[in-house]
Automatic annotation (TrEMBL):
Keyword terms: Membrane, Transmembrane, Transmembrane helix
Source organism: Streptomyces blastmyceticus
Transmembrane segments: 6-25, 32-53, 59-78, 111-129, 189-208, 220-240, 294-311, 323-342, 413-430, 437-455
Protein name: Glycosyltransferase RgtA/B/C/D-like domain-containing protein
Length: 685
C-alpha cells in the first residue's frame, strides 16, 4: 500500500510542475491543467513501463512515476531558481485566493451550494458502493476489466484474446483504472480510479463557462449540472467509460479555447507553447479512451486556429509560431493517444477493427455491431429525429437510472433548462459587442456531437454535447442576472431558472439513487422501463455491508462451480465458445487465469492443447457446436472429470478438470444426486 501511495504522490508531484511553468495569469484553468497532468502521468508511465519495457509491476511503475516527476520539473525549470519559485508561490496564492473567493461566493448563493452538496452526496455514495461491492456492470465484466486483469497477471500490456473488444478498443481509461490493481493485485477499486476523469469534466465545464464570461456561481452550477446528468453519475461506480471519455474531450476543448489567455503573460511565446503542449496531452488522453473521441481533433483545431491568427499580428509572436504550435501539439497527442490504434493496426490490419471506419475494413459499422440490437422497442422503426425526441421526452417522467440507460438518460433538466438556456446563451453571445471565449466552437461542438453520434437518442453517446452546451446556458444565466439586463423581469427569470435547476437536478439525482441496477439472488427487485431489474437503495446498502456480498450479486452467484478450483489455476476457453463474462472466471483478486485454445475436435487434441497452455480446467459449451467434443471428453473418463452439477453450468458451459483419474470399474465411493422425474446422477461406481 505504501508503494501505491508513493507512486501516486510522484505522479501528483509531476503534475504540480505546472505551478512552476505556468505564468500566474487566470486561475479557472489551473485545476484543469493539474488534473490533466496527473492523468497524463498515469498514462505515459503505464505505457512506457508496461508497454515499451514490459515491466508492469509495482516497483518499475513507482520508478517510472519518479522519473515522470523529475522530467516534468526539469521541463518547467526557468532560467534562475528564484523565478521558478516565484511562479510557484504566485500560482499557489492565486489558486488559494480563487478557491476561497469561490467558496464564499457560492455560499452566498444557496441554490448553487445546494446543487454542489447534492453532487458531493451522489458521488460519495457511488464511491462507497465501489469500495464494498464487486463489479456488476455488463460491459465492465465483459471487456473493460479483462484488459487490466490480463495486464496485471502478465506484468505487461498483453493482448487479450478472451474478448475481441478488450483486445481492439482504445483502453486509456482502463489503463488509469488499472494503476491501483498493479499494487493491490485486485481490481476491486478500479471504478474509483475513474473519479479524476469525472472531476476533470466538471472543472472543464466550469472553465469554459468562465471563459465565456459567466459568474463563478453560475459556472459552478453548470459544472455540477454536468456531473448530475443521470447518464454521467450512473456510470460512476462502474467500468463504463462514456462519461470519462466525454470528460476528457471537455478537458481538451477547455485548454484549447484558452490559448489566447497565455498571451497575457510576460513571456507569451513560451506560455503559448506550454498551453499547446497541455492541450496535446488532453487531446491524446481523449482519443486514447474511445474511438468516437476522434471528433475532438477537428474541434481542437477549430478552437486553436482563430486564436493563432489573432496572435500572429503581434510582432513578438509572428516568427515561426504556427509551425511550432502544430509540432508541440501533435507530439503529445501521438505519445499519449496513438498506442492502442497502432497495436490494433499491427495485429488486425486496421486501427479501428472490428469497426469499419474511414476506409479501413472491419466486421461492420458501429450501427451493425453495437447499435442495431440495442434499440429500445419504443424507438424501432422511427426516424433519427423522432427517436431522439422520444428519448429526450422520456427524461421528463419518473424512472430508475441504469448505467446503460437508453431512454431519458439526460434527465428533465436537459429538455426544460439546458437546451433552451444554451440557445438563448448562444444568441446573446453572438449579439454581444464584447464577445469573449469559444461561443461558436461550443455551439458547433454540440451540433457535431449529435450529428456524428451513432445513436443520438442514447444519452451516453452524446455527453460531449451536454458538456459543451452547459457553459452557454451558464452565460445566459449571467446575462439575465445583470442589473442592466432590461429591468426586474429578467432578473426574476434568472432566479426562477436557478431554483428550477436545483429542484430538477435534486429530483433526477434522487431518481437515480432510489434503486440501483443490481440483481440479487434473494432480495426483491423492481424493473425499469426496459425491463432491467433494479434493487432498492436500502437493500443495496444492507447487501454492501454483508460479508458475503459478492456471492449474492448477479452474475457472481452463477459461478459456484469455481469454488473448488484452486487459486493460481488456469481455465481454458475455446475460440468457438468464449464466455460472455471473462472477469468472474479470473476473479476480483485475480486468483485464476484464463487462456484461449484453438478448436480441437477430439479429447486427445484438447488434452494436448491444455498441457501446452498449462491449463488444468476447461469450459465446454453444451451446444451443437461443441457437441462432438463434449461427447469425446465424457467418454475419456481417465483424463477428464466433470466438476459441476447441471444447475451449476456457467452460461451453458460445463467445467471439466484435466488429470489422471481411475478407469471405469475401479471401486470408488459413489455419490448419487436425485434429480426430477425420477432420474439419478451417479458419480463414481
Amino acid at each position: 500500500m505504501w508503494l501505491l501511495a508513493m507512486s501516486i504522490a510522484f505522479v501528483g508531484l509531476g503534475a504540480c510542475a505546472i505551478l512552476a511553468a505556468k505564468a500566474p495569469v487566470r486561475t479557472h484553468d489551473l485545476p484543469v491543467l493539474l488534473v490533466t497532468g496527473a492523468l497524463a502521468g498515469f498514462t505515459l508511465v503505464s505505457l512506457g513501463v508496461g508497454g515499451l519495457f514490459s515491466s508492469y509491476r509495482p516497483v518499475p511503475l513507482a520508478v517510472g512515476a519518479a522519473v515522470y516527476a523529475v522530467l516534468c520539473w526539469g521541463l518547467a525549470w526557468a532560467p534562475g531558481r528564484s523565478r521558478m519559485s516565484c511562479r510557484v508561490r504566485a500560482n499557489l496564492r492565486l489558486l488559494r485566493a480563487c478557491m476561497s473567493f469561490t467558496a464564499r461566493h457560492t455560499w452566498r448563493h444557496p441554490v448553487t451550494a445546494l446543487v454542489f452538496l447534492v453532487a458531493a452526496a451522489v458521488y460519495g455514495l457511488r464511491a462507497w458502493l465501489s469500495l464494498h461491492l464487486p463489479a456488476a456492470d455488463y460491459d465492465g465484466l465483459m471487456y473493460h476489466l479483462v484488459g487490466p486483469d490480463k495486464w496485471v497477471q502478465a506484468g505487461r500490456l498483453v493482448h487479450t484474446p478472451e474478448n475481441l473488444w478488450a483486445d481492439t478498443y482504445p483502453m486509456g481509461v482502463e489503463l488509469v483504472a488499472a494503476w491501483p490493481s498493479v499494487y493491490l493485485h485486485s481490481v476491486q477499486y478500479a471504478p474509483l480510479a475513474q473519479l479524476p476523469c469525472y472531476l476533470l469534466g466538471g472543472l472543464s465545464v466550469l472553465s469554459l463557462a468562465r471563459q465565456l464570461g459567466a459568474r463563478r456561481s453560475h459556472a459552478l452550477l453548470a459544472g455540477c449540472a454536468f456531473l448530475l446528468t443521470p447518464a454521467v453519475f450512473a456510470q460512476a461506480n462502474t467500468l463504463y467509460v462514456d462519461a470519462s471519455s466525454a470528460s476528457l474531450d471537455l478537458g481538451a476543448l477547455s485548454l484549447a479555447a484558452g490559448l489566447s489567455e497565455a498571451a497575457l503573460a510576460v513571456r507569451p511565446r513560451k506560455q503559448i507553447l506550454l498551453r499547446t503542449a497541455a492541450t496535446g496531452l488532453a487531446t491524446g488522453l481523449a482519443i486514447g479512451s474511445k474511438t468516437s473521441n476522434l471528433i475532438i481533433l477537428p474541434l481542437v483545431a477549430l478552437a486553436i486556429l482563430p486564436q493563432l491568427l489573432r496572435l500572429q499580428n503581434r510582432k513578438a509572436l509572428h516568427r515561426g509560431l504556427p509551425g511550432r504550435v502544430v509540432v508541440v501539439w501533435a507530439l503529445p497527442v501521438l505519445a499519449v493517444g496513438s498506442w492502442w490504434y497502432l497495436r490494433t493496426w499491427i495485429a488486425y490490419g486496421s486501427p479501428f477493427y472490428p469497426v469499419s471506419l474511414l476506409g479501413f475494413p472491419g466486421r461492420g459499422s458501429v450501427e451493425e455491431l453495437v447499435i442495431g440490437h440495442n434499440v429500445p422497442m419504443a424507438l424501432r422503426g422511427a426516424g433519427r429525429l423522432s427517436q431522439t425526441w422520444t428519448s429526450w421526452a422520456d427524461g421528463l417522467r419518473t424512472h430508475y437510472v441504469g448505467y446503460d440507460i437508453r431512454l431519458g438518460g439526460l434527465g428533465p433538466t436537459w429538455l426544460l433548462l439546458i437546451l433552451p438556456g444554451a440557445l438563448v446563451g448562444l444568441v446573446l453571445w453572438l449579439h454581444s459587442p464584447r464577445r469573449r471565449g469559444p461561443g461558436r466552437v461550443l455551439g458547433f461542438a454540440a451540433v457535431l456531437g449529435m450529428a456524428v453520434s451513432p445513436a443520438s437518442w442514447w444519452a451516453r453517446y452524446v455527453l460531449i454535447s451536454v458538456g459543451t452546451l452547459l457553459p452557454l446556458a451558464a452565460y445566459a444565466l449571467t446575462r439575465l442576472s445583470r442589473p442592466r439586463a432590461g429591468g426586474r423581469l429578467p432578473r426574476l427569470l434568472a432566479v426562477g431558472v436557478r431554483a428550477s435547476a436545483a429542484g430538477l437536478l435534486a429530483l433526477s439525482s434522487w431518481w437515480g439513487q432510489s434503486a440501483l441496477p443490481i440483481t440479487t439472488q434473494q432480495d426483491p427487485t423492481v424493473h425499469g422501463p426496459d425491463g432491467q431489474p433494479f434493487t432498492p437503495l436500502h437493500t443495496v446498502i444492507d447487501l454492501a455491508e454483508h460479508p458475503d456480498a459478492a456471492a449474492r450479486i448477479w452474475p457472481w452467484f452463477g459461478y459456484d462451480a469455481l469454488a473448488e478450483v484452486p487459486d493460481g489455476s488456469v481455465i481454458a476457453l475455446l475460440q468457438s465458445h468464449v464466455q460472455p463474462f471473462v472477469h468472474p472466471l479470473i476473479g476480483s483478486r485475480l486468483q485464476r487465469r484464463t487462456t484461449v485454445l484453438g478448436n480441437p475436435t477430439t479429447a486427445d487434441e484438447l488434452a494436448q492443447q491444455m498441457h501446452a497452455a498449462r491449463a488444468h480446467y476447461v469450459l465446454l459449451d453444451n451446444s451443437r457446436i461443441a457437441q462432438q467434443l463434449v461427447s469425446a471428453v465424457l467418454s475419456d473418463s481417465t483424463h477428464f472429470r466433470l466438476m459441476n452439477r447441471p444447475e451449476q453450468r456457467i452460461f451453458g458451459a460445463d467445467l471439466y478438470e484435466l488429470g489422471s483419474f481411475p478407469a471405469a470399474g475401479t471401486s470408488l465411493p459413489s455419490k448419487a444426486l436425485y434429480l426430477p422425474d425420477g432420474q439419478v446422477e451417479v458419480t463414481g461406481t
